[in-house]
Amino acid sequence: MTELLKVLPSWVGMVPLLSLLAAAVTGLRLLLGRTQGDATETLTARLASLSAFSALLLLLAIDLSAVLYGLPGHRMLGVWFSGGHWAANISFLLDELSLTVATLVALIGWLVMRFSANYLHREGGFHRYFMVLGVFLTGIQLVLLAGNGLLAFVGWEMCGVASFLLIGYAWQRPVATGNALFAFVTNRAGDSGFLLALGFAGAWLGSFEWTAINAASGLSLVAVRLLLIGFVLAALAKSAQFPFTPWIARSLEGPTPSSTIFYGAVMVHAGIYLLLRLTPLLQQVPDVMLALVLIGGVTATYCWLCGLVQTDVKSALVFATVFQVALMLIWIGLGWSSVALLHLCLHAAWRTWQFLLSPSWLVITRGRPAPPPPWLQRQQWLYTAAVQGFWLDKLGDALLLRPTRSFAHDLRALEEKFIDRLLGQPGQGKPLPPDLPLIVGDGLPGMALARSAETLQQLENHLSLRGRGGVAEQFLRRAGLYLRILENLLEQPRYLMMAVMATFVVIL
Question: What residues does 76 pair with on adjacent strands?
């Protein structure tokens, strides 16, 4: 037992892999058509729940090993790829921060899996939901346990894709797909900062490991500030801090269990976790820490005012959630990282209960929601601004969503008017000669092939399909006649002797 506990930290890679395997099996069953009917839901739900519970048990065992034998620390499992003076490693960092948050997230993930099995019973996208949720759990565990920024970014993007797919769960509704696109584009704007920071780390430090980034040895203060700003931008977007806050209200379009794990308890804290991971680097740049305090204060004020005018439970909860996350940002800016971590864990557990309970809120409560306070109602301009979310949503729509939609429409027009006509579409071809309906051309390649087929058909008709007297037949008859004459000559004794003599001359 002792030896097993000592070896278990080396198996930490199985924590994200288990959920990914369950998602892959569910996806394979979808492709093979093995998910028809209510009876198939049981296997999908049990497989997803078992993978989440197994990951939780493995993390608890690693926690026990850390308590008994000390923290495993940085674990290098192999090299992913390398180039030049840097290498991308498959490594995990098992310290107080990662093990605490990862274990809590594994527990929340398992509870949400169990809750979802009943909540989404007989939903059209039941199996698709569990597949995407498995991808999310894989991504978030990579973010929490990764020992380097590059592997964490892989998990970061997996969470983003899963978020997009679950916000647009009801893809038949334009509102759902529009909100999914808004959230996706906003988060990609923040992810550009993550990529920029990783580029700086690879170029200046030659490593993506968190230990090397936090040390930032040999870098000037300006370089450290630039490196840090990229990560801060990604964290602000993922945790819906000002000015990226509006996307999180739109994300509630997805099912309630996904709202719980994405925006109530888990993913909304991913940005805070990233900043906690970079605490040693933050302490080198006090002005960035001051900026975090200011941004957290602005976000908290914004969410407080907007939360006062909400009329539905989930919207009120999400503004309250972002308000608490803003307080965590302030704690980090003040250097109180332990307070921020404790606040994160308690808040995640509390919001999980609240979001999972929100569908029953109308049954539990008897009175109407509390109206906005009188002092806010008297300030008409402030009340209107709070109802409108201080127009940040419209600003984001104008700066991010509309340009993305316009670009997509331009690409669609280019595809329909140029690419489709150039390459062709299956079943849209037309006969080139009207009298030969079998020769069909579609697009430039199809038309070229059809023209080639027509030319070969004409050549075949000219050479061999014109009956007796055709060009090919005349040529073959004449060649046969010449060969017969040559054969008759060779059969004469005198010519045969000449051939033998010629052979001896060549040999000698």
Answer: 91
